[in-house]
Amino acid sequence: MKNLIFTIVSVFLLASCALTPEQRYAALDKSLQISVSQSFNKSATISVEKGTSFTKQFTEVLTNSLFEYGFEVVANDVAETKRVTESQSENNENLEESIVSNKSSTEYKSIYLLTCAFTAGSGATKEFCEGKRREFNGTSFFVGRITGKIIDLSDGGKVVATINYVAPDTMLPFCIEEIAKIISRKLIE
Fold first, then answer.
1. Under 8 Å CB-to-CB from 40, ≥6 apart: which residues?
2. Which domain holds residue 63?
3. Is residue 129 part of a domain?
4. Nearest-angstrom CA–CA distance, 145 and 118
5. Whole-model pTM?
6. Handedness of CA 150, 57, 70, 168 (dihedral sign)
7. Domains in the chain: how many in total?
8. Which terminus of the chain, N or C, has less C-beta within 10 A?
9. Inside any domain, residue 4
10. pLDDT tens, per residue, the chain with 189 residues
């Protein structure tokens, strides 16, 4: 049984390594599903949600890719974070209680906001980028799954597009630049 599993895994690895760049890009294209509503105006301004330290690099690469594909990108650096302090007082016969709450919100200066979350995979030592294999720089984490949406900020947060991606090959995953290019290309089509 162990030999059978080893053989199946070996055949899969050999097959994935033997794919041509065109076949790999076809697999990437197939693994990235984007649904866009008819109300999505491709010429309106768009921002990419500010990333955490973990997602910041992908956020920057996606912003650049959208710009390269002709989108009117508003940098998320101009978004304003507003802090609001609300205070409520309740007066009872013998007790006065004060409730203070702090809230913060980010105000983007674009019509659309692209939000995305991803999970990282690990274990790969190389990635596929610009049509060829390359060694990982630094840690060997890669994008294993992306879920995202484009929100119309001018229409009460209406979702106008969704993005779903699952890495087609975890032994030789795609670099974030390639994934961002395919997202941008599919959104502009």
1. 112, 150, 152, 160, 161
2. 20-79+109-188
3. yes
4. 5
5. 0.73
6. negative
7. 1
8. N
9. no
10. 555 444 444 444 444 456 787 888 888 889 999 999 999 999 999 999 887 665 788 888 899 999 999 999 998 777 665 555 555 555 556 555 555 556 666 778 889 999 988 887 776 777 777 777 877 665 556 788 899 999 999 999 999 999 999 988 777 788 888 889 999 999 998
